[in-house]
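S1.2 Input.
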Amino acid sequence: MAESDGGSGLNIHPMDQFVVKPLFGGDVVHWYTITNVTLWMALTVAAVSAVLVLGSRKRALVPSYSQSVAELLYGFVHKMVQDVAGKEGVKYFPYIMTLFTFILGANLLALIPTSFSTTSHIAVTAVLALAVFITVTAIGFIKHGAGFLGLFWVSSAPLALRPVLAVIELISYFVRPLSHSIRLAGNLMAGHAVLKVFAGFAGVLGVGAVVPIAAIAAIYGLEVLVAVIQAYVFTILTCVYLNDALHPSH
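S1.3 Output.
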């Protein structure tokens, strides 16, 4: 929001757009409260389902636009999983495909004016990152048992350094969900905040807002790119972590 504050200058609140609000009255948010986050997550699921399920249900030889998009997404993620995690990782393709399409859908829907960016909230991205962390760790121990601990033992290093490197590897492993979630939320939040600031300048300047509007257009184009790249980065890191669980030895 941008407004003149009693003639004392510009008053812009770029973080107001990230406030979680109940949809049906009241100001208190409980765990069961339906909020704007709930709404836009549901819309993301509906949009992704429409593209992937409804759009490709006819399986036409000459694909429609939605079928082409669905096939492109399927082929892109499938190749990513196979290239990074190997053939063993392909069995986990449905989970990774779900992650990628949900994050991509949420990122793109957040670019609609007056929408809400769910993936700019650490609460959302932390759940996604923790789910990946717990899943790949469970896969590692189920498939390899205690042999999964070989991920932390750098056998190619000198013997005297191995214990030190093991501690470093262990710390870096448990930091993964933190970096995984903050990277996505931070990039989305920063971009939307910058857009709001320039929109505030444009609103105050009125007809003279040529420069802020041009900046908004440029940043908006950049944010579309960021939305796609961040979905890709989150997904490819998931594939890397999955590969570590499937092939833990250094």
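S1.4 Remarks. Residues 129 and 179 are 9 Å apart (CA to CA).
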